[in-house]
Recover the amino acids of this structure.
């Protein structure tokens, strides 16, 4: 090979480099690249974007550098008392500049109080937005992220982080259930700005993001809320607000990170009753009371949505796969309290 | 070709002479990572001897990597590259060692190094740390100290 020759005329060096490039390009198309250092592309968030578990980072997903394109797929399973969620997704990173992502949620909601009422109402012949024992939700998330400036990894002599902006469009397919839970919208967009920096001397990555959103439980239970206490549609509000998110990941080895996350949530549904068939449950307290279930009314009042916290461990044996296990503390979800549980995620990078 | 080779030899010889006569012009500045570099950094690599061993391991891993080995081979005189790198690494880690090689920008200006290739050297650096039993955290101090050179090394 030309590359082995060391003492050639200077002008030939370019030719040698070109040939070397073509030779290596034979294995993959020219645009393919996986040149990032291990774990520096982040993993797969439940929004499909690259980042931690819930919090998007400013890093562009995949292992591509500015020299090419890299794609990845992710799968995440979440199990807390109120819900079990399976998330499939894909994302593509272009030249360490632009990221496009898609994620699909399939979620079973286990709100036993709600199930009881649904069973009751079905028995009474009143249709509801929820089937007993089978409250499934589906949501699609489409995302794009653009790196504005900065290098999270190599600008070790500056405090300037890598900064990216992103947008997500979320479409919840479970309209009836979302309205049962008192939300206004089933489809909405979110925008975020994220700043990420690796502090090598302390082997730690810090990411701070601000998200402009009206989501309830990241949109899984809809967006905004409605105040209707009557059969007719009342005051609905899905005004967005800025919420903060933080990820801290400490690298204990080049392929292993431990860390924690915090994601601020809103309180759109705080104190709102679950509504069945457009009825606030308080309106049918009489019915419930008459058959001896008066106590249900209180238990169907939703709690202040909890901020999400998690602690995690991420392990990347190589550039093709990484695993994340996490313990989640999601707080109140709808009428269910203290939702702690486990999270497993894998990110396949091509 | 013969003429060209002779010309190259003369040019290289002249360059080396100038370099040896004027070491002051060949300076590279110590980088200034935020949060600093601990004074124990060189010691954690095993002193000058340890840094030298690390650089030898670094070149071992570089030469195994087809994405980058040809660049270092073409540059030639690997022994000298190892000696200069040993000086450079000690300097950026805070040792009072004079680095006698060319500045990072001068040394890499026309090599057309990509970010992928720079990262490949970083991967080799971590492999060298593991092989030499240098703790991951100590290794990160060196990466932090060398990282700012990305700006002048990666030109493509």
């Amino acid at each position: 090979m030309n590359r082995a020759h060391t003492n050639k005329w200077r002008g030939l060096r370019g030719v040698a480099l070109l040939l070397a490039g073509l030779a290596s390009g034979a294995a993959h198309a020219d645009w393919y690249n996986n040149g990032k250092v291990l774990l520096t592309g982040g993993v797969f968030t439940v929004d499909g974007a690259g980042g931690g578990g819930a919090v998007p980072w400013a890093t562009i997903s995949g292992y591509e550098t500015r020299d090419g394109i890299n794609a990845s797929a992710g799968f995440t399973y979440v199990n807390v008392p109120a819900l079990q969620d399976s998330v499939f997704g894909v994302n593509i990173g272009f030249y360490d500049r632009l990221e496009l992502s898609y994620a699909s949620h399939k979620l079973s909601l286990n709100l036993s109080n709600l199930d009881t009422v649904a069973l009751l109402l079905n028995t009474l012949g009143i249709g509801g937005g929820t089937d007993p024992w089978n409250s499934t939700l589906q949501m699609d998330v489409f995302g794009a992220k653009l790196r504005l400036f900065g290098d999270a990894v190599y600008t070790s002599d500056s405090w300037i982080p890598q900064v990216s902006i992103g947008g997500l469009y979320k479409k919840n397919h479970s309209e009836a259930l979302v309205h049962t839970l008192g939300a206004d919208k089933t489809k909405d967009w979110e925008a975020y700005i994220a700043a990420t920096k690796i502090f090598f001397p302390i082997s730690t990555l810090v990411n701070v993001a601000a998200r402009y959103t009206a989501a309830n439980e990241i949109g899984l239970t809809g967006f905004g809320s409605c105040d209707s206490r009557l059969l007719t549609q009342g005051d609905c509000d899905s005004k967005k607000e800025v919420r903060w998110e933080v990820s801290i990941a400490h690298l204990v080895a080049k392929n292993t990170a431990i860390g924690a996350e915090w994601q601020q949530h809103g309180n759109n549904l705080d104190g709102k009753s679950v509504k069945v068939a457009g009825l606030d449950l308080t309106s049918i307290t009489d019915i419930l009371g008459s058959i001896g279930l008066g106590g249900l009314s209180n238990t169907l009042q939703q709690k202040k949505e909890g901020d999400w916290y998690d602690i995690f461990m991420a392990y990347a044996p190589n550039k093709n796969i990484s695993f994340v296990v996490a313990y989640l503390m999601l707080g109140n979800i709808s009428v269910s309290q203290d939702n702690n549980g486990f999270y497993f995620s894998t990110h396949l990078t091509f | 070709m013969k003429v060209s080779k002779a010309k190259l030899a003369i040019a290289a010889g002249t360059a080396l002479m100038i370099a040896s006569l004027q070491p002051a012009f060949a300076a590279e500045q110590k980088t200034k990572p935020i949060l600093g570099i601990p004074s124990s950094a060189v010691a954690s690599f095993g002193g000058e001897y340890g840094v030298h061993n690390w650089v030898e391991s670094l070149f071992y891993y570089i030469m195994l990597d087809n994405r980058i080995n040809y660049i270092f081979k073409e540059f030639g005189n690997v022994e000298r590259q190892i000696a200069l790198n040993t000086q450079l690494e000690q300097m950026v880690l805070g040792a009072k060692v004079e680095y006698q090689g060319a500045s990072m920008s001068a040394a890499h200006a026309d090599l057309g190094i990509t970010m992928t290739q720079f990262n490949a050297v970083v991967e080799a650096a971590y492999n060298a740390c593991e092989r030499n039993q240098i703790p991951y955290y100590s290794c990160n101090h060196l990466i932090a100290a060398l990282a700012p050179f990305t700006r002048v090394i990666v030109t493509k």
